[in-house]
Design goal:
Rossmann fold, binds molybdenum atom, binds ligand MGD, about 775 residues, 33 strands
């Protein structure tokens, strides 16, 4: 019990009644469409659903609130959304409400004992609410008083670094820019964001090797690729519209290699719901070669592939692109030398993939050079997440597969504007360039001290070195590592503020005082003085475009994110600052003007964001590595991962089910993996089960032990599954209690959510 509130940090751990079936051999098809419509109709009604779905990802409409996959230049007339986009919309545009009446009936203690699914399904937040010190119930508060309260708390800090400003990746460029500007004007760089837990490893690796922390491919490249490697990613669930792009590659004669400990249904076969064949036919086979790698052994596997390619190259030049290597890269010799450190046998054993399959991949890669590598959390969320990605870059550099059509890097982003938020200045690192542009344009001095990222700000709050926590979206408590430690950290704060659309656990596990500031969602009409406003977002491939909602807002008391940020800043400075925060928060055109002035890449934002939008500059596309050492792209000698596993231990990856968006639980099914009505499951290899005397649906507890601290997640059902021996999979956020806050990727500080060493114990 902390803060006198007996709130539950994780909610109930009881079972919901599992129904098991065989894992699916294909993704989407009729079931995808049916499920999509079921969710929207149930939450939004038929008329509202059909109106909104027709405008999702269309040029004059709004950007899907789901993932960051780009829209085709000519969107499909039928529907440019997927099952999970429809679910994201249903979740946001639900007609259910969490209003003052709801919150006066249910205390935070009661709500914290609901599951995340039940909490999320209670509806949209409708008015600003305060949880006063010592109280168990939220009560209404005016916007003005909430802004004053925040300003007051911020003024009471002895140092601006005692405040933390989190961002989740759904905020628009305009909101994120204004927020970042205010935080700097306030005087700190404590801007952790969801990227820290997500693609930070990609940003660091790509920045160091290629000079830009983003991918290089455009959507059109998928049509022209000869080989697409999909690693550590489950597009059938998390980026379903990517399957259409993969299908196109296949139809154009391309090949797909998937590298994943699981044979994910979406990578096996795709029945395109936008085509008649997707309903009645057998669909398109996607994966040609599946390399079923052991968790976190991608470097071993890639090294072996590169070694075999190097041997072929020696015999018959032409496997590697030596012109490319000598013109554009640095470090080739050291990479070749590094390959000699490990024998083929050793690498083969470590990665656990049959050699015959690896040879097929090598044979394919040897003769092709239009190669794209796509990846997501399966590569980034490990201790060596940065090196995983550097090894991918090595392969692309050897093959000269950069800066030409059909080739390049493709880190597939998560949240729909996570990349844009970064581009407009949400980062805990200091950018001297950005600081001097702010100084020049707005005439104030941004702070020059590095800020804290996600893991370090949790520690700061835990150590009582930070006292005020403000979140622009997201569900910090449930998304971060080490839920119990994070709960204690938040509860140590005097004030926690959540700018949110939906109720989540971060509204229940709070500082002494807590505020909920409800905001407009993507799909909602944002009007000011009778004029409709639009905002802009950047997709996973660096294209910036407009988004304009159309639905009636969930409540007439909602404010837009820029208005809220402007309101907080205005109350804090109370007229004593060079920036007119209130006006800026109301006028997105003015914000865009400032973005254009301060961030040169966004020049033309106001005009060029129209229609299908414009691409931000990308040096890799032009093979310009002038900002890197020697002006060259960098090869890297990557180390093998170092897992010291005892006989009784497993490596656990925490993954998403088909029915969730991060901590938002749409439903209790994971259709493609054959799970119905249950989230408390652990996927385990049959041999491991046998060895430990476990039967299907036995109940187990999971334990991790790092630095002599034992963390436990209780009550999971064992599911026999096609997963490498010694590996386990279970869902996030139920298993976040097991992830130690102080174990994270070198350089990127991304928590090790995909390689947690655990033991299992039969209950
Ligand atoms: N519907 C829906 N869409 C989403 C999200 C969502 O929750 N729901 N989340 C969004 C966000 S923020 C993100 S970041 C993305 C996440 O998208 P993904 O990264 O696809 O999400 P995960 O479920 O974490 O899947 C990780 C995949 O990597 C594999 N994997 C795990 N460990 C390893 C490994 O060591 N090596 C290899 N090769 N593979 C491994 C797993 O088997 C799994 O297939 O999706 C975005 N889109
Ligand atoms: N163990 C484990 N942990 C992980 C991961 C993992 O794979 N395994 N994945 C990590 C990854 S990749 C990510 S990105 C993070 C996600 O971390 P977050 O981004 O913090 O979490 P979400 O669940 O996406 O946040 C959902 C909440 O955002 C709010 N919201 C939704 N739309 C809007 C909006 O338009 N505006 C505002 N202001 N609020 C909105 C709603 O209140 C909703 O409840 O989690 C990370 N945590
Ligand atoms: Mo993410």
């Amino acid at each position: 019990m902390i803060n006198n509130r007996k709130t539950s940090v994780t909610g109930p751990t009881t079972f919901t009644g599992i129904v098991l079936s065989e894992p699916s051999q294909y993704a989407a098809g009729l079931a995808g469409v049916t499920v999509a419509l079921k969710h929207t109709f149930k939450e939004m009604g038929v008329t509202r659903s059909m109106g909104a779905l027709a405008k999702m990802n269309q040029k004059d409409g709004f950007d899907c609130p789901g993932c960051a996959w780009p829209d085709p230049v000519k969107p499909s007339k039928v529907a440019e959304y997927c099952e999970n986009g429809a679910k994201a919309l249903a979740e946001e545009a639900t007609t259910k409400k969490v209003d003052a009446n709801f919150l006066s009936k249910h205390s935070v203690e009661e709500l914290s004992n609901w599951t995340d699914y039940e909490i999320g399904k209670s509806g949209r937040l409708t008015e600003p609410m305060i949880l006063k010190e010592g109280s168990l119930y939220y009560e209404p508060i005016s916007w003005e008083d909430s802004f004053k309260l925040i300003a007051n708390e911020l003024h009471q800090l002895s140092n601006p670094d005692e405040a933390i400003f989190y961002t989740s990746g759904r905020s628009s460029n305009e909101a994120a820019f204004l927020y970042g500007l205010f935080v700097r004007a306030f005087g700190t760089n404590n801007m952790p964001d969801c990227s820290n837990m997500c693609h930070e490893s990609s940003g660091v690796a790509l920045g160091e090797t290629l000079g830009i922390g983003k991918g290089s491919v455009k959507l059109e490249d998928f049509d022209q690729a000869e080989v697409i490697i999909v690693m550590g990613q489950n597009p059938g669930t998390n980026h379903p519209r990517m399957l259409t792009a993969l299908e196109k590659c296949k139809r154009n004669g391309g090949h797909i290699i998937s590298i994943n400990p699981l044979a994910e249904a979406g990578l096996i076969r795709f029945k395109n719901p936008q085509e008649i064949g997707g309903f009645i036919g057998s669909g398109t086979q996607l994966t040609d070669i599946h390399l079923q790698v052991k968790i976190n052994q991608d470097v071993s596997l890639l090294k072996l592939i590169i070694k075999k390619l190097a041997a072929l190259d020696k015999e018959n030049k032409g496997v590697f692109d030596h012109d490319f290597i000598s013109t554009y890269t640095s470090g080739y010799d050291s990479v070749l030398h590094d390959l000699d450190q490990n024998s083929d046998e050793q690498l083969l054993e470590l990665c656990g993939v049959p050699e015959a399959e690896i040879d097929k991949a090598v044979e394919l890669l040897a003769t092709k050079n239009r190669i794209i590598i796509c990846w997501a959390m399966g590569l980034t969320q490990h201790k060596n997440g940065v090196e995983n990605i550097k090894e991918c870059v090595n392969l692309l550099l050897l093959k000269g597969s950069l800066g030409k059509p059909g080739s390049g890097t493709c880190p597939v982003r998560g949240h729909s504007n996570v990349q844009g938020d970064r581009s407009v200045g949400i980062m805990h690192h200091v950018s001297p360039q950005l600081n001097s542009a702010i100084k020049k344009t707005l005439n104030f001095d941004p702070p020059e001290k590095e800020g804290l990222d996600t893991v370090h700000c949790i520690k700061a709050m835990h150590d009582k070195k930070a006292n005020v926590f403000i979140a622009l979206g997201g569900n910090f408590l449930s998304a971060v590592a080490d839920t119990n430690y994070a709960a204690q950290a938040l509860q140590n704060c005097s004030l926690t503020v959540q700018i949110s659309t939906k109720l989540n656990r971060s509204h229940l596990i709070t500082g002494k005082t807590a505020l909920i500031l409800p905001t407009l969602g993507r799909s909602e009409k944002d009007t000011k003085d009778g004029k409709q406003r639009f905002f802009t977002v950047e997709n996973s491939m660096g294209k910036v475009h407009r988004s304009k909602g159309l639905l009636k807002p969930a409540s007439d008391q909602l404010k837009s994110e820029p208005e809220i940020v402007g309101g907080i800043a205005d109350a804090y400075f109370n007229g004593n600052h060079v920036v007119d925060w209130k006006t800026l928060g109301m006028d997105y055109d003015l914000i865009r003007e400032k973005i254009e002035e301060i961030i040169t890449a966004f020049k033309g934002l106001s005009k060029e964001s129209e229609g299908s939008g414009f691409y931000l500059p990308n040096n890799v596309r032009n093979l310009d590595f002038s900002k890197l050492p020697n002006g060259k792209a960098q090869f890297s000698a990557c180390k093998l991962p170092d897992h010291q596993i005892n006989e009784d231990e497993f490596i656990l990856m925490t993954i998403r089910s088909h029915d969730q968006f991060n901590t938002t639980i749409y439903g209790l099914d994971d259709r493609y993996r054959g799970i119905k009505n249950e989230r408390r499951v652990v996927f385990m290899n049959k041999d491991d089960m046998k060895q430990r005397g476990l039967q299907k649906l036995d109940v187990i507890n999971l334990k991790s032990n790092y630095n002599d601290t034992v963390r436990e997640a209780v009550n999971f059902l064992v599911i026999p599954y096609d997963i490498p021996k010694g590996n386990l999979a279970s869902y996030f956020p139920e298993t976040n209690v097991l992830v130690p806050y102080n174990h994270f990727a070198d350089k990127s500080n991304t928590p090790i959510s995909k390689s947690i060493v655990v033991t299992v114990e039969k209950v």
